[in-house]
């Protein structure tokens, strides 16, 4: 009888260890997935909710692009230069800090369009 109980205790201990290892792997996988969703990678579409000069809400639709290799400037300045304005309103704001945290270092948001206060989408013409 004693031998049977020892076997059961050993089996229970091994089962707990296996279950614990499985839970650790599951949590690590879940965390990696959350982190991937948090970061703005090259090619993904993002939105910036801001106000225009008349204090009306406007949403900029941006695609994350690589910083051009020839430009030796901070990616925020590249963003402002290529977009002719910063979609995060201004460098040194909370929105810019959030943008810096979420995007990879060698990417910047390139404005491809905007949604105005009426909910209409306007694509950005490259030459204007």
Protein traits:
alpha+beta, 4-stranded antiparallel beta sheet, elongated
What features would you describe in this structure?
This protein is elongated. It is 43% helix and 23% strand. The relative contact order is 0.14. The chain has 2 domains: 38 residues; 79 residues, no CATH class. Strand 3 and strand 4 form a beta hairpin. With 128 residues, it is an alpha+beta fold.
- How large is the share of residues in beta strands? 15-25%
Structural class: alpha+beta
Give the number of helices: 3
**What would the principal axes of the Cα set say about the shape?**
elongated
Number of strands: 4
- Uncertain runs are none
| Span of the ends, CA to CA | 87 Å
Order of helices and strands: HEEHHEE
Estimated radius of gyration? 25 Å
How are the strands of the largest sheet arranged? 1-2-3-4
Write the layout of secondary structure elements.
Blueprint: H1 2-38, E1 45-51, E2 57-66, H2 75-83, H3 94-102, E3 107-115, E4 121-123
Précis, in short:
This protein is α+β, with helices and mostly antiparallel strands.
């Amino acid at each position: 009888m004693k031998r049977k109980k020892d076997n059961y205790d050993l089996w229970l201990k091994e089962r707990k260890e296996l279950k614990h290892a499985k839970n650790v792997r599951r949590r690590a996988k879940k965390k990696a997935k959350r982190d991937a969703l948090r970061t703005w990678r090259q090619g993904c579409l993002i939105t910036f909710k801001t106000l225009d000069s008349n204090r009306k809400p406007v949403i900029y639709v941006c695609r994350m692009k690589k910083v051009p290799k020839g430009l030796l400037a901070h990616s925020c300045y590249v963003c402002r230069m290529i977009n002719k304005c910063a979609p995060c309103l201004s460098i040194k704001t909370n929105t810019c800090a959030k943008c810096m945290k979420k995007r990879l270092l060698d990417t910047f948001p390139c404005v491809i369009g905007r949604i105005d206060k009426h909910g209409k989408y306007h694509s950005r013409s490259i030459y204007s």
